[in-house]
Amino acid sequence: MTMEELQKAIELQYQSKGIARCRYNALNKVFTFLKDYNSKDNAVFLNKSKEELKAGYAQYWNKKLNDAENQAINDIYKYISTKSNFITAKKAANKEVKIKNDKPNSTPLSDYKIGLSPWLGDSPKVLILGTMPGDKSLREQVYYCDTSHNSFWKIMYSIFGKKDDMTSNHDFITSHNIALWDCVQSGVRKGSTDDGYDINSLITNDIQSFLKEHPSIKTIVLNGKGKGSKKRPSTTFLFKRFFFTIDFDGKIVLLSSTSNTCSLTFEKKLEEWSVISELVK
Q1: What are the φ/ψ torsions at residue 220 (nearest 5 degrees)?
Q2: Using CA atoms, how far apart are residues 87 and 6, in angstroms rounded to an integer?
Q3: In this structure, are strands 178-182 and 184-188 parallel, antiparallel, or unpaired?
Q4: What is the pTM of this model?
Q5: Alpha carbon distance 243, 279 (integer Å)
Q6: Domain ranges (residues) in the chain
Q7: What fold characterizes domain 111-278?
Q8: Contacts of 36 by beta carbon, 8 Å cutoff, 6+ apart
Q9: Which of 11-25, 90-104, 164-178, 218-232 shows the lowest mean pLDDT across its residues?
Q10: Three-class SS of residue 128?
């Protein structure tokens, strides 16, 4: 069982039990820590006690564990200690789980997605939020990776000048004081289309804590200003639905989606997105 499969399995348990959202966020932080071991299986748990792992986690984040983080680590050890929980992906795909609406729903494991960690440099000034990475981006662990269906990088290269071939997209975008993240941390989404989301399954990223941890951010840019709906959520729709109480004194700028499904021409999108060059100063 890979780290990703283990996290998905535990989050599916959380969904069936109606666990509070703060536990999902804590679990995601724990797995961010664990993935730094570059472990592709659960071997890390075989040579570390629960208390040793908690101590390492606290040292990694340079802070004491809160209740949600402490419980998330307990949940991991409880799961892996139960041999019967190590079900195959095939069984998991056919396993009946309950989503937040408490209606039984058979969800293939392949449709349950976990987003990417934020990309950011030392002092980002602009946070660009999307909905959730598509399948290709999740496989490659690179934001806006499917350039045949999304013009994000083409627009950024046009605004800031094409990056050197030796520079990664991560280093390119963060060097311009831009952070990338998404509204959705995890949830059910069939494929990469906007109408593939199960809105009731979505767990959001902790944007509020992120902004507090990075006070240099003065502008949030929403990649997709369309009205959206529950069946076809846009970034703006998700932001208004989940973050309407956010405490943020800076600007919130709505821009047309960089997705090629947006009807605007590339030239119109580039003209609209060019405001970024002023926001990062």
Answers
A1: -105, 125
A2: 10
A3: unpaired
A4: 0.66
A5: 22
A6: 1-91, 111-278
A7: Uracil-DNA Glycosylase, subunit E (3.40.470)
A8: 60
A9: 90-104
A10: strand
